[in-house]
């Protein structure tokens, strides 16, 4: 940098801010023309800032860790894309780890993140168990939660309880009183809230759902198929199923067809998340749209606010029901 400063006759501090800061920092340090001169000469000499030296001086690595259950899942991949894009705009580098919902692995990954001097971590794989809450309390670096919430820790989430209510309102309006729920994981806020919103609506409408008609499971197609098979077998009068995850709903769709029924014709089905696949199925799936990519962007913004010492109120985005063919069946309410 001193060599560049001598050749350009520009103070070394200006060179430093232009080459080591983001666009906002660079624009405050010099004019557009000067920035271009500095970067052109730096490129000529193949100059690259040393991130380790910078972190020693600033005590900031500009690294953001992201912990998700499984990046192969479309929802988590979309959230990470939102985080990564927002991080790059702020001159941060994001990386992702898969915990596979295993608390011990998550803890080891968090310890490694701390040893690598990350500035903060965004967790998408937190459970509502005491073990998870204790883990969060033990962390020695800033963090926020995304998609799932736990305790009073800062989070960017969707209003899952309202999403469940929207699904219930739709099925209730279509005359469905014999309904069942595939509730996802019972140790995640998403599974609990999406289920609670649905069951609360039916209870308030004077049609409470029996506990036996609510099955909790994993968020995948096999679990959805298994749960739907059990529900259809146990309750022959069933006319509608609500699954709190699109992949579980797709599994349920297979079980419905195996039982000799047709989704949307004599069995209504509603999922959650509105993955791209939902609209492209042979029988398009009614589902609750969850703005997951925006959740990633807002989670990154929330973490940066926390790092700057600013107030960071929780982010609560609004879901919206998308009605398609799979819930087109209108039931005749039982008197």
Provide a descriptive summary of the structure in words:
41% of the residues are buried. This protein is elongated. It is 48% helix and 15% strand. The strands form two sheets. The protein has a six-stranded parallel sheet, with helices on both faces. Strands 7-6-8-9-10-12 form a six-stranded mixed sheet, with helices on both faces. It folds into three domains: 2-49, no CATH class; 61-157 and 292-317, Rossmann fold, CATH 3.40.50; 160-291 and 321-327, Response regulator (Rossmann fold), CATH 3.40.50.2300. It is built from 14 helices and twelve strands. The model has no long low-confidence stretch (mean pLDDT 92). The protein is an alpha/beta fold and 335 residues long. The protein has helices at residues 2-8, 12-20, 23-29, 32-44, 51-58, 74-89, 103-115, 130-138, 160-173, 189-204, 221-234, 246-258, 276-280, 292-307, and strands at 63-68, 93-98, 120-123, 143-146, 155-158, 179-182, 214-215, 240-243, 268-273, 286-289, 315-317, 320-322. Helix 6 crosses helix 14 (292-307), helix 9 (160-173) packs parallel to helix 10 (189-204) and helix 11 (221-234) packs across helix 12 (246-258).
Which tags fit this structure?
single chain; 335 residues; alpha/beta; Rossmann fold; 3 domains; six-stranded mixed beta sheet; elongated
């Amino acid at each position: 940098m001193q060599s560049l400063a001598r050749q350009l006759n520009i103070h070394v501090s200006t060179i430093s801010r232009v080459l080591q800061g983001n666009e906002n920092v660079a624009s405050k340090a010099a004019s557009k023309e000067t920035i271009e001169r500095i970067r052109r000469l730096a490129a000529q000499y193949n100059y690259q800032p040393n991130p380790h030296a910078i972190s020693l001086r600033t005590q900031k690595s500009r690294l953001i860790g992201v912990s998700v259950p499984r990046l192969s899942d479309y929802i988590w991949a979309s959230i990470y894309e939102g985080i990564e894009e927002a991080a790059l705009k702020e001159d941060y580098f994001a990386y992702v780890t898969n915990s596979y919902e295993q608390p011990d692995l998550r803890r080891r990954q968090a310890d490694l993140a701390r040893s690598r001097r990350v500035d903060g971590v965004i967790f998408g794989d937190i459970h509502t168990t005491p073990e998870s809450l204790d883990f969060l309390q033990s962390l020695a670096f800033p963090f926020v939660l995304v998609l799932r919430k736990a305790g009073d820790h800062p989070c960017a989430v969707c209003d899952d309880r309202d999403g469940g209510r929207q699904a219930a309102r739709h099925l209730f309006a279509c005359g469905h009183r014999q309904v069942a729920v595939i509730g996802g994981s019972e140790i995640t806020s998403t599974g609990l809230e999406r289920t609670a919103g649905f069951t609360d609506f039916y209870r308030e409408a004077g049609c409470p759902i029996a506990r036996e008609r609510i099955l909790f499971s994993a968020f995948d197609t096999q679990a959805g198929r298994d749960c739907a098979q059990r529900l259809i077998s146990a309750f022959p009068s069933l006319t509608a199923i609500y699954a709190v995850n699109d992949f579980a709903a797709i599994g349920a769709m297979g079980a419905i067809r195996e039982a000799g029924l047709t989704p949307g014709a004599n069995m209504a089905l509603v999922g959650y998340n509105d993955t791209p696949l939902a609209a492209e199925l042979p029988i398009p799936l009614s589902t609750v749209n969850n703005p997951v990519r925006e959740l990633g962007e807002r989670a990154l913004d929330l973490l940066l606010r926390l790092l700057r010492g600013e107030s960071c109120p929780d982010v609560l985005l609004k879901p919206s029901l998308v009605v398609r063919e799979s819930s087109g069946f209108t039931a005749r309410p039982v008197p």
